Amino acid sequence: MTDPDRMTASATFAADAVFALTDQHRDPVAGQGRQPARAVEPGRIAVLPTASEFFTAAVVAGGGEVAPLDADTRGLVWLSEKRADELLEILDAHPAIGWVQLPWAGVDGFASVLERYADGSGPVFTSAKGAYSEPVAEHAVTLAQAVLRELGPKARAAGWAPVRTGLSLYGRHVTIVGAGGIAAEILRLLQPYRVRTTVVRRSAEPMPGADRTVTTDALPNALPTTDVLILAAAATSETRQLIGSEELALLPPTAALVNIARGALVDQLALAAALREGRLLGAGLDVTTPEPLEADHPLWAEPRCIITSHSADTPEMTAPLLAGRITENVRGFLAGGPLVGIVDAALGY
């Protein structure tokens, strides 16, 4: 979403529709919480910066008492990604807050907040990581097929193509950067296509469902045989422009690049050059940096680049999933039990 504050407005506007679709997607990591590293004192919960009946109801469903921010506040549900400075001010002014629920899977928008508490002090942060895996993974596979089938240039053409072109996803080598909930769901969705899969992650621990798991330093070795490269990693200082001119040069000219993570993972000017020079079949980008992408950015002019304006997880898809995450974590917060989606402030995700 280009404007995360829309979640509150959209949830209120489309509450009936959202409740009707509660069972459309599942949170694959629900019920898989873990105990926070430090004890959290239960108490009243504030919903900020703009509360909605929908998410307030999610707190109440977990047994929580929603109240205005004051000295008795112990939990905080934060519904905006763009107001990190305001959140930091609130936490500074209310050091008794012991738990903060953030709204999105990616928490790079709160880097300044997490840096403040990287030493392990302050509240326990939880995010929605893993909750939106199904809709985002669905979008990733959609973009992969759209690029391979050359839907971008075909849809833009004003005439009938003289030659039938396009590649099938079946039997391809798919490399996924990242090993979180989205990557796990992508692997599940890819099973019918009989693809070979490589997962690139920070550790060498095998990723369930992947044919091969390698560490990040082995990414260059995987690229020359990659037909589809899907980026599903968190945005950190280590992953910034992980895919640049050198990495793009290692991909085959028939390869597709899909980014449903964060725009910062890709050197976008290098990508535009690779597309312009025919060194890549195409790219499917749900995310860019900045968002929205500048109107004169060269990627807009590339017919083989499909940009979907951060719509992999629309408010109607994410609202019930976030509500479920809030309810589960409120229960854990009040009972001193496990929390789902705990953020490592030192690592930034």
Automatic annotation (TrEMBL):
GO terms for molecular function: NAD binding; oxidoreductase activity. The keyword Oxidoreductase applies. Residues 154-312 form the D-isomer specific 2-hydroxyacid dehydrogenase NAD-binding domain. InterPro entries: D-isomer_DH_NAD-bd, NAD(P)-bd_dom_sf. It holds the Pfam family 2-Hacid_dh_C. The keyword Cytoplasm does not apply. It comes from the Bacteria. Keywords: NAD, Oxidoreductase. This is Phosphoglycerate dehydrogenase-like enzyme. It comes from Microcella frigidaquae.
